[in-house]
Amino acid sequence: MNQPLIRLRGVSKHFGAHQVLRDVDLEVTRNRILTLIGPSGCGKTTLVRIALGLLDADSGSLTRSPGLRVGYMPQKLVVDPTLPLAVGRFLRLAERDPGKCRVALAETGIPALWDRPVSALSGGETQRMLLARALLRRPDLLVLDEPVQGVDVVGQEALYKLIGDLRQRLGCGVLLVSHDLHLVMAATDEVICLNQHVCCHGTPLQVSRDPAFVALFGRRTAPYEHDHDHSHP
Amino acid sequence: MILEVLSWALLGGLGLALVAGPLGSLMVWQRLAYFGDTLAHGALLGVAAGLWLELGSGTAVMLTSLALAGLLLLLQRSRALPADTLLGILSHAALALGLVALALTPGARVNMEALLFGDLLTMTPGEVAAIWALATAGLATLRWRWNALVAITVQEDLARVEGVSVATLKTVQRLLLAAVVAIGIKAVGALLITALLIIPAAAARRLARTPEQMAAIASGLAMTAILIGLATSWWLDTPVGPSIVVGATLLFALSLAVRAR
Q: Which of A29, A154, A201, B222 qualifies as a cystine partner to B200, CB 3.0-4.6 A?
């Protein structure tokens, strides 16, 4: 029986008078990659913060499987230039044993960068370092917020492949946030298209053909691109 | 006699400098310089309150500083105003209110210069003991929670997901800062205490490769600044507080010559 690692039911959230999320359901299970996709401002990051317990929902419920270990990769890492911080020390913020930190760094493919200052890393190296820190938690659930941000196209593909491999090896569930479905098509099992509420939900192929998705993003395969205003009955 | 005055001053200054290293480094990383200034300006209000309530001035300043830190934490949580605007208002309001309250206090004889610029040379053994008690407790607390403090400085959400209780830790750090500012006012004064926290830490940046090195080097540089300040004051008869800050600034200028690591 594949019990959900994390389950959100009927989650709504307002910031002031502005409704960011309306009645959202979401479930992540072991060995599956679920991608949250939607235009910027659609509530992806808010939903992830609620799932992580960083933010309280106005209504709805959040259930985590008992003893759940979460590895989180935030969207941004801005280290103040006044803080001298090398990659190894960054990892040791989460795990005191340097041996384990080196193993995690090797797992994400950048074992040589142990002594490199965090401020001197490229976009892709930063993302791999963040992923290594998430792995140190030996996570049941990996939550990755825009994991390929600031990474060139070749690097993006490699990073998605790495995430897929890690899922296989660790048997963890993955909740991924992205703004571009076509990039994550191959790397995901299931997609939720979000725009304040769940517009559509299914396999990447199903979602890419769903009228609600096409209305939001346009059809990439069509001979011309066109955008509709977002509307629902 | 002179030597005794000098050794109490030295001992008090060194205790303050020791805890200023790691605490000042955290301030620099978290951009809390203005926060420190606000607390220091609040000291004036504390002195006035002490006279009104007939409390000892040290106790009153300490209580005011802690209360102000708590108020700032609450106001910042509400996010009604940008943090620097809020601090700008409270900092100057506290300073002005303190000056007005002192003027209205009947029979108040306050040595304003000592309050604003410090008077390390009138340090009593009791005050020196209080500084070392606070410095020891402060260093022990910082050492105990150091990893978590650096973690929330680097990425707060990540630290929270990993189980760090961010709100508690921030409160403890700010209250410790408030206590050190309150007690440090005696040494370098309300206008210069932030300098003793910030400048040695900024100077240590170029000499350090890790957060821990930066904190330790900052302590060392702050202690050196105390020595420079006392020596200058001794031989050139300059005011102690400003002399210490000039010493720290000199060390900072020298650090600029070191190539960044």
A: B222
